[in-house]
Design goal:
Number of helices: 9
Strand content: 25-35%
CATH class of the largest domain: Alpha Beta
InterPro entries: NTP_transferase_dom, Nucleotide-diphossugar_trans
Number of domains: 2
Radius of gyration: 22 Å
Oligomer: single chain
Organism: candidate division WS5 bacterium
Protein name: NDP-sugar synthase
CATH superfamily of the largest domain: Spore Coat Polysaccharide Biosynthesis Protein SpsA, Chain A
């Protein structure tokens, strides 16, 4: 779908702040997460688990109950999100772009603009990255919203780490500068994908996406020149889950939101096992005479006489008599000692 249709078709927006109508949420979940392959080869990144729940479920549960939600994804993961929706217990409008591969996707800004246009949204919107984990409730963020564009920033605490993200400086509650992945950051405040866009900024968005359809940070930079942009700075945990280390760090750092017994519900422990650090094991898995530390182990795995540290183990993996460390183990791999290993670990 092209982006040039926003003008010349009689579209008209009341550019005042919405009154008497609820803000709507748009969750972006249309990426292909190639940096997390093979884990995300056939699984949408927002559906990866953190503490036993899909990342996107954490987002939905933190939104106000009366807020209408639109989740934008692609055709490749259409059925996966429909299955997720069935078990959610809350209405979410699924919006599918026409993409089946990375090169066809409309980009983050294109997805926002298309959703606003196609769904006839005439209220302010809260935009969230479907692969972001936020510890705080979005009610805190919304309370600071005054009708001007508002972004959420996280103090990452280190300028070298900040250089991997969009970096901003602020004077009080107002953003005064923004740079995308600078070599020499001016601060440690990094932009998260949590942003309130008032409907009076929709025309600016529609104009901007004619030339830049993907990077939300560039739109923030553009808005600063055109309008006042405010910032909400959170001190609570935030993770952009874009890599193996990012995903594992999120799992290890996020406080458990479920009871200990729920973290191992449906898991069969046999013999003498030692678990250290933070370990999540999904249902249908058998653990026998093994040592596990700081791991995510998905459903229907079998781990026998093994030592596993700092790993993400995908569904239906069998490990026997091995030491594995700092790896993603691909779905249905069979890893044994000696020449019994049938699937190489990448």
């Amino acid at each position: 779908m092209g982006l040039g249709f926003y003008f010349g078709k009689g579209l008209c927006y009341n550019v005042g702040l919405t009154k008497g109508k609820a803000m709507k949420a748009i969750i972006l979940a249309g990426g292909y997460a190639t940096r997390l392959w093979p884990l995300t080869k056939e699984r949408a990144k927002p559906l990866l688990l953190i503490n036993g729940k899909p990342i996107v479920t954490h987002l939905v549960e933190k939104l106000p109950k009366n807020m209408e939600i639109f989740l934008v994804t692609n055709l490749k993961f259409k059925q996966s999100f429909r299955d997720w929706q069935k078990n959610l217990g809350r209405d979410v409008n699924l919006v599918f772009d026409d993409a089946r591969k990375e090169a066809e996707k409309p980009g983050a800004l294109g997805a926002i603009a298309n959703t606003i246009h196609d769904k006839g949204i005439d209220e302010d919107v809260l935009v969230l990255g479907g692969d972001n984990y936020f510890q705080f409730s979005f009610k805190e963020f919304i309370k600071e919203y005054s009708g001007a564009p508002l972004i959420c920033a996280y103090d990452i605490g280190d300028k070298q780490d900040a250089s991997k993200f969009g970096v901003l400086t602020a004077k009080g509650k107002r953003v005064v500068s923004f740079e995308e992945k600078p070599k020499n950051p001016k601060s440690t405040l990094v932009n998260t994908l949590c942003m309130a866009i008032p409907k009076n900024s929709f025309p600016l968005l529609f104009q901007f996406v004619k030339d830049y359809s993907d990077n939300t940070g560039e739109f923030v930079k553009y808005l600063i020149k055109k309008d006042k942009v405010n910032v909400h700075i959170t001190k609570k945990d935030w993770f952009d889950i874009g890599s193996f280390q990012g995903y594992l760090q999120a799992h290890l750092s996020v406080a458990r939101e479920r009871g200990e017994e729920e973290n191992f519900y449906g898991v069969d422990f046999v013999g003498k096992n030692t678990l250290e650090g933070k370990v999540f094991i999904d249902k249908g898995t058998v653990i026998k005479n093994s040592y596990l530390k700081d791991c995510i182990i998905l459903e229907d795995c079998k781990i026998v006489d093994s030592h596993i540290t700092n790993c993400i183990i995908d569904r239906s993996v069998s490990i026997n008599g091995c030491k594995r460390k700092d790896e993603i183990l691909e779905e249905k791999s069979i890893v044994c000692k000696g020449d019994k290993c049938k699937v190489p670990i990448k």
